[in-house]
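Human: You know discrete backbone vocabularies at least as well as I do. Show me how you would write down a chain together with its backbone fold. No explanation is needed for now; the record alone will do.

Assistant:
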Amino acid sequence: MIHTAEGAAEVRATSALLAAHLMVPRVPACLLVPPDPEQLLSRILESRPQPSRRASLPAPQLRRGAHAPLRPGAPDKTALRATAEHGGLPGRRRGTMIAAVAAAALVVALVAAEGSRAQPAAASTVPSLSYGLGDLAESSPDELPDASATLRGLADAARETPEPVRTGTVQHVVAQEWLGETGPAPDGSGQATSVYPTVTERWLAADGSGLITQRRAAAVTYDGAIDTEAGPSLAGELSSDVVLPGTFDDVARLPEDPAALAADILSRSSAECSLDDWTGYCLTEQVQAYFGSGVVPQDLTGAFWDMLAQQPTVRLLGPTTDRAGREGTAVAVEAPKIPEDPSDDESVLVLIVSEETGQLLSTETLTLRSDLLGVTSPTVTGFSAITLSEYTTEVGR
């Protein structure tokens, strides 16, 4: 991060030089205008899930109506794990990590999808969603029903859904989400964590290169109000980062056999994923990251759900309506306790899946309690919705 006028000028000069020699992808003009914080916040937040005005909006996979996340997925155990710690987006080759994902240092939630650039309804707060079979505010995750049969049904739905027609070879995913980052407190009293409503746009080319652009509104508190005590994001209102060739692997290279798929993911996961009771959470977290970073083929989508169906820690929350007004089925997995962690933090990762297409619609991070975040009762500390997931012809457009 550049903190001096001279450093900022040097960055601008270097960027201009690279652009002049066609060494960076073109950034759409619409992304170069800093967003109005209030307008961006109102587009991202929803007071209550409302029925969609479109009949039965399908899941992510082509232009269908309203896409994250994600996001690069670091464990949401405390909602404060740096993305870099877990390798960020799936398939990232270690040693080639870029500032793109580090800009959103801590990801508290990710992904959901539809298709075209429709905007979500405006809102002022972020209440917990209502689920058909359980209430995490009143019961623990291990008291919820087993999700195996439901996940196998979602796998069948995914495989029965035809693949969309591809218009190019570049994967393009847009997410509206809450991203948290930790940095110096505005009053200089130490470190502080702030949550920024963010629109994240990703392009992934066949050679593993791409572009990640993020537009951020003013920080918010967990009830959706503007956080007047938080400073601006260290990454700025707008950031656009080039991803070098070979940085990302295409999700389509993953095996479709559930056992082989789990082994592949765990072999590239962080060390704690080998501990007892961590497997289900780590696999679920990586599944959400894959959907947030690229277009997931239908057969592989089915393999993901069959894989999670074998994990006893993945539990069923039942039918719900996500924050984009889409109906789906929710499953949940509790974040395991980090060894030797003295805190009593507890959080749950929720995935909402379309029963029609099997595609992931959205994710929610529900923090039950956290000393670090100052949460004493169940609180939505993150969510993500993919508003676009498609193939296009060119990085940056």
The two ends are 27 Å apart (CA to CA). Helices lie at 5-20, 37-44, 99-102, 148-160, 258-267, 279-293, 298-309. The beta strands are 170-184, 191-204, 210-216, 238-243, 314-321, 327-334, 346-353, 360-369, 379-392. The chain has a mean pLDDT of 74.
